[in-house]
Design goal:
mainly alpha; two-stranded antiparallel ribbon; 1% strand
Length: 355
């Protein structure tokens, strides 16, 4: 129960505190009880604590509900558990990545209305104001500014971006960097967000490579940073032809074993995507290593519809009918528009594999 306003400010005759002191203590009492939640939120927290909750979409929904209820204590608990436990969903995605992906954008996603973005960012700022030492809240806010900046820029080529789009893109990247630099305690996602800043601000290769090396030292298993660094190395951004492929080989060897093979697949799958217009030359990446990487994924973490669709597209792109036929049979009708772009592309590849 929160303290009644009159009780919070009532002074006894021997109370020498100022009204400012009493007000501050009242705020501290309010924060102390901020973790008091409704029975419904208690149920959500129980689900979060249950390691059997292993569906990424369900987990994201839980995080969004906690955020919308402004249950910041619950969010802090979930983030700490995801980070310290290094939990993953089927397909290898880190729960920590899914956590920030959920809380750093409105329910409608990156393309949601600016009005929804404004409400969302206001909630994140309230999180910081109530828990000023929270690193999690700051990282979420920084990623929100980066995602909102990407929305303003749009997904087209540079010559299609408006002056206003470039301005907002740059301003929000600057805001994100200033917030990230103030984070008292880093987690693996901090490096991912900083890698996005490196891309959006056009950092030189030496500075971005230093960030990568620091990330590896901090948590080598957080492969999401490697995917973002590989994105930075695309020739359309700041890399030269061959940089991306050299990095995929180097990082998979550096990590070694099945985990290294898995990372190779993850990097390759980022750049063969019908929906996002990435169609590299098949000779750029080695199909045998991609297949080994997907096999490692299945063995280490199990697979998911997202990863199956990615592998199916890669199998079709590299012309491996046997592999494509097998994976399309597993996918059945669960095609992913984020991978294929449209159903026609999916059906065309599936028909090719079956015939």
């Amino acid at each position: 129960m929160f303290l009644p306003l009159c009780a919070a400010f009532a002074q006894s005759p021997d109370d020498n505190r100022s009204l400012g002191d009493i007000a501050r203590e009242a705020r501290e009492q309010k924060l102390l009880h901020a973790s008091d939640v409704t029975p419904h939120s208690d149920r959500i927290r129980e689900l979060i604590a249950d390691i059997g909750v292993n569906d990424a979409d369900e987990y994201r929904g839980q995080m969004l509900e906690l955020l919308n209820r402004e249950d910041f204590a619950g969010l802090e608990h979930a983030a700490e558990k995801a980070s310290s436990g290094k939990g993953r969903f089927p397909g290898g995605v880190w729960k920590l990545y899914s956590f920030y992906d959920a809380v750093s954008q409105p329910a409608g996603g990156r393309q949601d209305r600016d009005a929804s973005w404004n409400v969302h960012i206001a909630i994140l700022n309230r999180w910081i104001s109530l828990l000023p030492q929270s690193s999690t809240a700051r990282i979420a806010l920084a990623q929100a500014y980066l995602s909102h900046g990407s929305k303003a820029r749009g997904s087209g080529y540079a010559d299609t971006v408006t002056d206003e789009g470039w301005q907002k893109y740059g301003e929000r990247a600057d805001l994100a960097l200033s917030i990230l630099q103030e984070v008292p305690n880093r987690d693996p996602y901090w490096y991912f967000a900083m890698m996005v800043v490196a891309l959006e601000q056009g950092w030189p290769k030496s500075r971005t490579k230093a960030l990568l090396d620091e990330s590896i030292s901090f948590e080598a298993g957080f492969y999401h940073v490697y995917r973002e660094y590989a994105n930075y190395l695309q020739p359309k951004w700041y890399g030269a032809p061959g940089d991306l492929e050299a990095f995929a080989n180097a990082i998979s060897q550096r990590i070694g074993g099945e985990e290294g093979e898995f990372v190779y697949f993850e990097i390759a799958s980022l750049f063969y995507c019908g929906a996002c217009g990435n169609w590299s030359n098949p000779a750029d990446m080695q199909w045998r290593k991609i297949k080994d990487g997907y096999a490692a994924l299945e063995h280490l973490y199990g697979t998911s519809p997202l990863k199956m669709n990615r592998f199916a597209l890669l199998a079709a792109k590299f012309g491996d009918k046997a592999a494509a036929r097998e994976i399309f049979a597993q996918i059945a009708d669960h095609w992913d528009p984020g991978i294929w772009g449209d159903r026609q592309a999916f059906e065309k590849a599936k028909l090719w594999a079956e015939n």
